[in-house]
From TrEMBL:
Listed name of the protein: NAD-dependent epimerase/dehydratase-like protein
Family annotation (Pfam families): Epimerase
Gene3D superfamilies: NAD(P)-binding Rossmann-like Domain
InterPro entries hit by this protein: Epimerase_deHydtase, NAD(P)-bd_dom_sf
Domain NAD-dependent epimerase/dehydratase, residue spans: 8-193
Length: 311
């Protein structure tokens, strides 16, 4: 597929996930403006410092130049797409009400501004925490395996609830304006610097990782997921699980005595039903929809890299 180069406003690009997604999108040839309250240490991407919980700042962030120039050589242009990552990424970083305000108002302002400015593609960072297990009060089961986008979302916490509110607002605006809004339910994001440490924990203590649904999102593949969404038009409002292909431990691997992903899940979640049979190493959160509808292909599978880097 030949890739269309686009002008993209990326919110929250100075953060853990955004900085890697941006560098991957640059590899794909896109021009990017980062909108964040803190700067990004990327010499090729200008950061407009803006607080998107303020509607006027959000609106202006989506309707300005892409860099500082004297004079401005390029005319103002409407961006082709907005990728919205800015927000508070988990509970307990701020009081619940402040997290909820920032995440819901920030996303509302970006969605509304983008639609009213005529931007036709919006990609939003939602979360697999919406399935209600990650930040539950106590031990809760997933409704079924593999967890697809139809799985009930029953969170108890303010963070996941703020993401569900964002998805609902997105659905309304997509209907009203006839634009594409793709909500990505992202798993635990693993940046390159944390890869070894995280996969050591995932593989050495597999039973611990129910809150992550034994699934992960490679930070650079998240950029590839954004690229897949940018290149696919006309789907209207959609929700996609945005995770990598495989389960985060050796359940389906070569380790003697271990079974496949399904057998592992039956051992750790004996009461949870299966709605279809799973691939031997398939991630419990299914990315099938993203692969089928957006054509996403993972570039950074964990297994070979983990083994290779251990040698
Ligand atoms: N990290 C994960 O494992 C994970 C998993 C699922 C979903 N997500 C979602 O992905 C997105 C990015 O997560 P992250 O881990 O990179 O978080 P992060 O905290 O590292 O980055 C978020 C960025 O948003 C910026 N920001 C916060 N409030 C802002 C505001 N009012 N105006 C402008 N910028 C603001 C911050 O300065 C920061 O640079 C978030 O929406 C998060 O909920 C993250």
């Amino acid at each position: 597929m030949s890739s269309r180069k686009q002008k993209i406003v990326f919110t929250g690009g100075s953060g853990l996930a955004g900085r890697h997604a941006i560098s991957k999108l640059q590899e794909h040839g896109h021009k990017i403006l980062n909108v964040d309250v803190t700067p990004l240490d990327n010499p090729d991407v200008y950061t407009l410092k803006a607080d998107i919980t303020d509607g006027a700042q959000a609106f202006n962030s989506l309707s300005c130049h892409f860099s500082k120039q004297e004079p401005f050589h390029e005319p103002l242009q409407t961006p082709d797409a907005v990728i919205h990552f800015a927000g508070i990424p988990q509970p307990m970083l701020l009081p619940d009400n402040e997290l909820f305000r920032i995440n819901t108002m920030g996303s509302y302002n970006i969605i509304e501004s983008a639609c009213k400015l005529g931007i036709k593609k919006i990609i939003l960072a939602s979360s697999i925490t919406t399935y209600g297990v990650s930040y539950a009060e106590g031990d809760v089961d997933y409704a079924y395996f593999p967890v697809d986008e139809d799985c009930p979302c029953t969170p108890m916490d303010s963070y996941a609830t703020s993401k569900l509110c964002m998805e609902r607002v997105a659905q309304s605006f997509a209907l009203r304006y006839g634009v594409d809004i793709y909500c990505y339910r992202i798993g635990a994001v693993i940046p390159p610097a944390a890869f070894q440490e995280k996969f050591r924990a995932y593989t050495e203590e597999p039973a611990r990782w129910k809150p992550h649904a034994w699934s992960y999102t490679d930070a650079l593949d998240l950029g590839n997921m954004c690229e897949a969404g940018l290149q696919k038009d006309g789907l209207g409002f959609q929700v996609f699980n945005a995770v990598n292909d495989e389960i985060t431990n050796d359940a389906g691997g070569e380790v003697a005595g271990q079974g496949d992903a399904e057998a592992f899940l039956k051992s750790v979640c004996p009461g949870t039903k299966f709605v279809r049979s799973m691939g031997k190493r398939e991630a419990p959160v299914s990315n099938r929809k993203m692969k089928e509808m957006l054509g996403f292909k993972e570039q950074y599978p964990w297994r070979e890299r983990y083994r290779k880097e251990l040698i």
